[in-house]
Amino acid sequence: MSEPRVRRAEIAIEQSHVDRVYRRLGELRSQAEDMRTKGYEIGHGAQREAVFEQASMLFERDMMVNHANQTLQSLDAEYEGLVFGRLDHTSTEPVYVGRLGIRDADFENLVTDWRAPAAAAFYQATAEAPMDVVRRRVIRCSGQQVLDVDDDVLMPESVPDDMPVVGEGALMAALGRARGEKMRDIVATIQKEQDEVIRAPWRGVTEITGGPGTGKTAVALHRAAYLLYRYRRQLGGAGVLVVGPSGVFTSYISRVLPSMGETNVELRALGEVLDGMEATRHDPAPLAAVKGSLRMRKVLLKAVRATPPDAPTELRIVYKGEVLKLGAKELDKARKKVHSAGGPPNRSRVRAAETLLGMLADKAEENAASGGPQLERADVIHDLGERIDFHRFLVAWWPVLYPAQVLRWLGDDDRLARAAKNVLTADEIAPLAESLRGEGDDWTVADVALLDEIRVLIGPPKRRKQRAQEIELDAEQTRDSDDPARLRTARPAHYDEYSHIVVDESQDLSPMQWRMLGRRGAHASWTIVGDPVQSSWPDPVEAEQARTQAFGAKTKHRRYTLRTNYRNSAEIFDLAARVVAGRGADDGDLPNAVRTTGLEPEIRTVDAHDRESAVHSSVKELLDSVDGTVGVICAMERVPEVERWLAGQSEDRLKVVGSLDSKGLEYDAVALVEPTELITESLTGRRVLYVALTRATQQLTIIASDDDWR
Ligand SMILES: Nc1ncnc2c1ncn2[C@@H]1O[C@H](COP(=O)(O)OP(=O)(O)OP(=O)(O)O)[C@@H](O)[C@H]1O
């Protein structure tokens, strides 16, 4: 048979298996729906039963509905193909590998979940160590239709005469395909060095380093899916958190886990780690460096202990005809005394009341000594402690503090200067105060870590009973919900801790951001993804210190380095490598780009006043020449202007993105505007430029009015 006919015949064989799988999927879906309906019927029946029966029926309902919803969620996940691989062994039956494990009515395996040990050979077998795999086949589907098959022979001597072998290079085909708006999963083509990281043990700290495009993000996400599959009991309860550098990035990766049927992972950008925050704005680099530095801890500690701006400066109370008075100095002394006990302010209000009452009683004793009436100390404390005017004073003098309010107070130059005495320089204080004078919720990404630090320093307000009721209510509503998304988030509101934390682009986390994450992972295991060469943090030693502290006493620390760049063409990566060579990167740190396209990056040197038209025409050409996405990357400050220039070209495929937000993203073609500006806007400029230069898979055009960046 000719090659195309063999291929067609093989596609037909795989199509019949895929059809069988989807028929079975339909049966499983209707079984799950029946189970959910039955669960609800039990729930309704429970209303007529006695309390004891009611409780057990409701429990049964919850179990059934929850289980059915989870099954439906994974069956309904969106993916390119449920079945994507097949292993033929020397003697045993072929094994099909897919995103889910599915058995037929007789419990025979139709598809093996890619994370199951039985599927490991799909990723691990090599010609040197074939693990009894004669032929490994990648099956490419679109929905339910098989489009192509692609084989790898691992034991040539064992291939039977009737076993055809077709195609070559599933990986290269996948890498050459046009990119969409969202990142795709790589389950069908995970490489051996990547598989080793994905399946590494879950405990301790697993660190993944490697240059741009080596699949670090893809691997970390597949690892999250793998860990939840293998260790759901250990990790499922408190959940898995994936932290990325920006909202643009978390949106870009948002489809990867659901496409593997995994919906129990929280994705948050650094500006969203604190509940309720959605910060996207960046501070200028020198200011971000101050806000991220560990020195801010001392400043904030002083700030939360300072006298609130509107606190009264005198306490005057009349008791049994006697005037008892505490002046500003005495009140300051009282405040210091309360803080010296070390409790967080919001948990020290009782102590504050006791301290003031004690001082008022001292006053009464002083008055008695100088001829005033003799008053019982215990009576003074008891009676004043019940007085409404005393409590009014207390509320104003020792108010409940909120993180945003405390941080805004530091917008006052004098107040900040007092809190930052001997810690920050005058040059640092002025811009910091100015940046904190904003309004409402307009915080920057760096502010979020400060707000989180303050949250912990001030402690939660004492409203335990009410909070407990709120949590109860929330859990109740969650249980009664039909919406699978609500069932998934059945985790108490404001519950900080996770059992596994994945940190992407970790090289850029400031020490204060590490502290913020450390609080959420006190008992967690970690997967840390990063590339030191792409770091934009100016003080790596301090960040390293904070990072080690965040991990706590975790003893197991394993490190993997990925060395193949799957994203950039060799032509694009050569240029990027030249930009960092000898400036923060050894040649040994740089990955190896394996795919060539024959298209060299284009550098357009233009006069500043021709910049706009050059960007316009370059973008148009790039849109015409690639099928997928085009990214326009420029300095953060220039984004609004470039967006205006391109407003007419409102293609979905086109995105304008600032240098710092381009971290982790990928486009088929990139137009890079004024590279020198990327270097000057950041404290580690050349690295930021390196990030921008390594975003394109196929084509890169650089529009520059100077040559300094080279
Ligand atoms: N085994 C693979 N099969 C197919 N595609 C892959 C594979 N490994 C990586 N890729 C693709 O290579 C590209 C780069 O991957 P990814 O974004 O995970 O790299 P990265 O190391 O995180 O890059 P950066 O540090 O630059 O953000 C993605 O499009 C990813 O899907």
Summarize the structure.
The protein has about 700 residues and is an alpha/beta fold. Helix 15 crosses helix 18. The relative contact order is 0.10.
Describe this structure in words.
The chain is α/β, with parallel strands linked by helices. The chain is built from 27 helices and 21 strands. It has a six-stranded mixed β-sheet with strand order 3-4-2-1-5-6, with helices on one face. The radius of gyration is 31 Å and the shape is globular. Mean pLDDT is 85; it is low at 466-491. The chain binds adenosine-5'-triphosphate (ATP). Keywords: ATP-binding, Helicase, Hydrolase, Nucleotide-binding. One of its GO terms (molecular function) is DNA binding.
Structural class: alpha/beta
Q: Strand fraction band? A: 15-25%
- Biggest sheet descriptor: 6 strands, mixed
> Helical amount among residues, as a percent range?
40-55%
Order of strands across the biggest sheet? Answer: 3-4-2-1-5-6
Small-molecule binders:
adenosine-5'-triphosphate
Radius of gyration: 31 Å
Please give the count of helices: 27
Mean pLDDT over the full residue set: 85
Unreliable residue stretches: 466-491
Let me know the number of strands: 21
First-last Cα distance? 55 Å
**How many domains make up the 3D coordinates?**
5
User: Quick one: overall form?
Assistant: globular
Pfam families: AAA_19 (PF13245), UvrD_C_2 (PF13538)
Domain UvrD-like helicase ATP-binding: 189-569
Binding site for ATP: 210-217
Protein name: DNA helicase IV
